[in-house]
Here is the input.
Amino acid sequence: MEKGKKMIYINYEQNNKLQRLIIDKDNYIKKVIELLKDETVIKIFIHKREDKQ
Here is the structure.
């Protein structure tokens, strides 16, 4: 990952399992819409972080 790149962490519950996605800030909205359309996804948590390494 590039220094200072903004990443979005998406945690979601699907089929009673917690899943995690790490996606760049520019493409996360498209993925969230896909998750919202999926009937097996129960909860979606979105966290915004900036890589400082």
